[in-house]
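Q: I'm writing up a methods section and want to include an example of the input and output format. Could you take the sequence below and give the corresponding predicted structure tokens, formatted cleanly so I can copy it straight into the document?
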Amino acid sequence: MNILSIQSHVAYGHVGNSAAVFPLQRLGVEVWPVNTVQFSNHTGYGAWRGRVLGGAAIRQLVQGIDERGVLGRCDGVLSGYLGSRDTGEAVVDAVGWVKAANPAARYCCDPVIGDAERGVFVRRGIPQFIKERLLPLADTVTPNQFELGHLAGRATATLADVAAALDAAHACGPRVVLVTSLAVDDTPSDALDLVVSEASERWRLRLPRLPVVANGAGDAVAALFFAHHLRARRAAEAMALSASAMFGVLRRTAEAGAGEMLLVEAQDELMTPSRVFVPQRI
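A: Here is the clean output for your methods example:
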């Protein structure tokens, strides 16, 4: 399996491609990473160095891959953090090129917009661009709860609210919607939920809440879910495999008191999670 991953990259820590590439490789996926930014560390530290890569640079990299004659063997495109609208337009072009070369290829949009703690943390215009330009192209979208509400333009406080927001997300184009970091009115305070929606099926998976804040966990879950879904074509199974794997990584990270995800040290969890969680149909 080959996946073109167009995301941010940091030298220190694990977000964007720095969180997605290694887990995908451990699953046996050949990853073609194209970086939208080159930063020293993620912006949550408050200070960083590096630069945003323009759309022209991203197009050149994808065109160079195309010149190798391999885009027809690309099974999927994964996109994450967009540094600018220009970057987003380059993603649109890349998805078009891949699907022209391989009509069976899928596109997974991880709509990085913000979170409940920090609100919107991307540049102005990016959320609207994601909704209007990327969601109509996407086969799969993987928002957190805050991003789902932002894209759907409605509250997500209850499971009924989430169901309505999922309907709104599907109406934008994606056939599969995975919602991460979900806490609704019936979610226990010591737990977090994930919900996946595909066709007429919806499933919820409940995980114990861990005492760790891990930037990039959502990026890794999106990548793992996309790969597992491309293989199994069953959304509930892909959610269970990806969530169980990341729970194991984050549990090991919390136990070590580490400030960044221990992806390499806990890599066995990516392949064989020590605890497997079972989703329930809702």
